[in-house]
Amino acid sequence: SNVSDMKVFRLRPEDGDSELSLVDLREMWIRNNARGIDSLRRRSIGFALQSRELLTSLTVGENITLPLRLVGTSSSTANARVKELMERFQLRSQGGGDLTHSRVNSLSGGEYQRVALARAIAHSPRLVFVDEPTAALNREMARGALKEFENLQHNSANPGATVMITHDESFAREFANVIITMSPVKDAAAGRVVSIERQPVLITSMETS
């Protein structure tokens, strides 16, 4: 549809002085503000897709560090954050050592997915998009990974929101505060909204209307 008919979509990212500013993504798109959109994406948005999006030329640690490098994080702070995420997402080899220096093409499916999830939140974004984030994980690992996203969302210093696409209804009900159920539409790229269910707790830094 025409972008002028889009719903208002606003985000409150931190600027360079750690102040919150209101950003209207619809207006930025209409004005073709590519630089502003790119800056906002690098600073305030994270994502983990189902496709193979990690860079095979980089190690696990370098992949996780990448979003931090793009926003100018110092090496010491970035390295500390990578070490923290390696522990939180249990990215350890069978021998007990971490996988920081491993190549991503040597990882199992579950390890790969956890690296992608760790990279998605490395820079503490205010908005995260994840597609089937638990598909390659056992229940314990999946719950632990979603807890990390929940902790980021509830961070009082930098609260945010996660948009998750999943077929796992039990995890959706455990972690989501808004559940949108959709069904496919033949020969259409987008599906049809079946229902919208709001859970008791609503914590978000987005404004939509």
Question: How would you describe what is shown here?
Answer:
There is one protein chain. The chain is α/β, with parallel strands linked by helices. It has helices at residues 25-30, 34-44, 60-70, 75-88, 109-121, 139-153, 169-175, and strands at residues 9-11, 23-24, 45-48, 127-131, 161-165, 178-183, 192-198, 206-208. The protein has a three-stranded antiparallel β-sheet with strand order 2-1-8. A three-stranded parallel β-sheet has the order 3-4-5. It has a two-stranded antiparallel sheet with strand order 6-7.
Largest sheet: 3 strands, antiparallel
Fraction of residues in β-strands: 15-25%
What is the distance, rounded to the nearest whole angstrom, between the alpha carbons of the first and last residues? Answer: 17 Å
Spatial strand sequence of the major β-sheet: 2-1-8
Q: Give the C-alpha Rg.
A: 18 Å
**Strand tally, please?**
8
Mean pLDDT: 83
Order of helices and strands: EEHHEHHHEHEHEEE
Structural classification? alpha/beta
Overall 3D geometry? Answer: globular
Number of helices: 7
Low-pLDDT runs: 1-8, 15-20, 202-209
Estimated helix fraction: 25-40%
Secondary structure layout plus pairing:
Layout: E1 9-11, E2 23-24, H1 25-30, H2 34-44, E3 45-48, H3 60-70, H4 75-88, H5 109-121, E4 127-131, H6 139-153, E5 161-165, H7 169-175, E6 178-183, E7 192-198, E8 206-208
Nutshell version of this structure?
The chain has 209 residues and is α/β, with parallel strands linked by helices.
